[in-house]
Amino acid sequence: MTAPVPTLASGCAQPPTGIYDVALLDLDGVVYVGADAVPGVPDALAAARAAGMRLGFVTNNAARTPEDVAQHLVALGIAAAADDVITSSQAAATVVAERVGPGARVLPVGGPGVAAALEAAGLTVVRRAEDDPAAVVQGYGRDVGWAQLAEAVVAVRNGAEHVATNTDATIPSPRGPLPGNGAMVGVVSTVTGVRPLVTGKPDPAMHAECVRRTGARRPLVVGDRLDTDVEGGRRAGADSLLVFTGVTDPGALLAAGPHQRPDLLSPDASGLLDVHPEVVAVDGGWHCGVWDARPLGEDGHLQLSCVPCEPGDGGDGLDGLRALCVAHWSAHPDAAVPARVQAADDASAAALERWSLGTTG
Length: 361
Hints:
Elements: E1 22-26, E2 32-33, E3 36-37, H1 41-50, E4 54-59, H2 66-75, E5 85-87, H3 88-100, E6 105-109, H4 112-120, E7 124-125, E8 135-138, H5 146-157, E9 161-164, E10 170-171, E11 178-179, H6 181-192, E12 197-198, H7 204-214, E13 219-223, H8 226-235, E14 239-243, H9 250-254, E15 264-266, E16 280-282, E17 285-288, E18 291-295, E19 301-306, H10 319-331, E20 340-343, H11 346-354
Parallel strand pairs: 1-4, 1-13, 4-5, 6-7, 6-8, 8-9, 9-12, 13-14, 14-15, 19-20
Antiparallel strand pairs: 2-3, 10-11, 16-17, 17-18, 18-19
Helix pairs in contact: 3-4, 3-7, 5-6
């Protein structure tokens, strides 16, 4: 039986702006890193809007309100209103309101965005376990400390449902990955022994919230994480564009399991404006641009070659990686298998070094 061809092989014969009606853009690691915009992204998003694509700014970071996020985006030169922003706090509030009913008491843990979303959903915010909350909603907050975690632990132990806006272990920063909400959620779940209900990406509730708020008919998820953005899009039935301005590197991409394999790749969000090449099966291997990738046996080994390779070839610099991904995923359609790549020539060796994949003899 022939293995299914990964959707990455199909490419995109016209820019995504002409195919998808809404781009659901992750923020941290896609639009900005820390306080600063990813270079070139504000102009790219303006061009995507000018081409007719609507933008939704989607974040698992629950710390800030949509108004605060929109103000930050505007300060970075990106036109945005609060209605354009969808946070994991909003998704959690929608789910909790459905589960415990309007007006129910809920204890927030996290930044101001958590409590604001709960109040906007018609829930009653309380601050102590002794107020008998029906649920605890836990989201990221830079000032979350022992006191908030202790209230959450007592409330959950007393029977409150533990709801996490997300379980991202890390958040990107200019200093490298830092502790994310998942690290703090782990404290509460470890002490209580209760596994939380997670409503942010990759849970379908998050993208359902996005579709509800944007009215998207054919959305494209744009993200930097395999386990939240790409998997979340796949679970919601949406295509995804992976960018390399955040936490995912080429090695992790190659080793991705079937539910975390994106449909499109780009160095950054400007990929919304570009044609994406297809990856074609040729003589037992896979060809993209001037690059050829083929498996060497069944143990995850691959060979990359450049045929022919001339100065200026290579498009956005990812065609070789596209070929490697399709070759590896086609050989391992149902499993996440680390890849080891050997270069057939100097150009391939340079590409592998650029992607921090190294070479094997």
